[in-house]
Amino acid sequence: MSKLDTATPGGAMSSEALFNREKKANSLWRKFCRNRAAVIGLVIVAFMVFIAVFSPLVAQQSPIALDLKNKLLPPLSPGHIFGTDEFGRDLFARIVYGARTSIIIAAGASVVGCLLGMIVGMIAGYMGGAVDSVLMRIVDGMFAFPSILLSIVLVTVLGNGALNVILALGISSLPRFARVVRGQVTILKNEEYCNAERVLGASHLRLMIVHILPNAMSPIIVYFTLNIASAILSEAGLSFLGLGIIAPTPSWGNILRAGNPFLGTAPHVAFLPGAFILLAVLGFNLTGDGIRDALDPKMKR
């Protein structure tokens, strides 16, 4: 018989210590940290959020101040670490302030899409039958359009501006959130604890909000993180086409648009905001993948 199986106090302490060590080793944070790519992604996200929140401290110059005498300066020019654009505006300041615009819009659009998708998905999954069929056919109809095309149509109808871009991107991401939530609710509504609550007289609203929704949050959190990356790309695409944030307000998309005519003479004006878009999207995708693996109970080492 193993020493750990004995009923001695020492054996009990050893069993408890092993249990605690195993529990600690498989905590969400430690599982996340074992994924090196996810840690790198989290560092990138933290860096992007930092420069977005503390833009006035990171960039000392104004992102909209014109200086036509010093237009299209190359990187590492005196007083302009990233150079200047076609109007002599400091490119480093515009990219830093553009991070604030792009990340706020991406996060806001993800919140809008998540909330609307949760409402539609929970109602469809919980009610089932005709309600589910009608709502899911509407969602399928939205899926028929590429998200960027649907965003372009919505922005054209709503108009330019940060709030309208957030609404357009949020509505275009609704179908994906609705599908994720509906699948989870369809499974969870038939669990034993839900049947027990029904017997005890719990209302449908209480079942959905108190008992089903908390247990469906894991895939929603993962998809929310990944959707921020998609929203950053979509916002950049809209602004590049002139349908999103309009200059002089900086965003990565309209900075990239402004640099497009100068790819041959001053490629840094387009390359640098494009690099930040790539870095931000990579960071959020790696972080989302890490969260997904950490929340997966099968991922143990």
Describe this structure in words.
The structure is a single chain. The chain has 13 helices and no strands. By secondary structure, the protein is an all-alpha fold. The radius of gyration is 25 Å and the shape is globular. α6 crosses α8.
**SSE pattern, N- to C-terminal:** HHHHHHHHHHHHH
Global morphology:
globular
Number of strands: 0
How can the largest sheet be summarized? none
Tell me, rounded to a whole number, the average pLDDT. 88
Structural class: mainly alpha
Strand content: under 5%
Rg, Cα atoms, Å: 25 Å
Helix content: over 70%
Topology, pairings included?
Blueprint: H1 9-25, H2 28-34, H3 36-53, H4 55-58, H5 91-127, H6 129-143, H7 147-158, H8 162-188, H9 192-199, H10 204-215, H11 217-240, H12 252-259, H13 268-295
Helix pairs in contact: 2-13, 3-5, 3-13, 5-6, 5-8, 5-11, 6-8, 7-8, 8-11, 9-10, 11-12, 11-13, 12-13
Which tags fit this structure?
disordered N terminus; mainly alpha; 301 residues; globular
Short description:
With 301 residues, this protein is mainly alpha-helical.
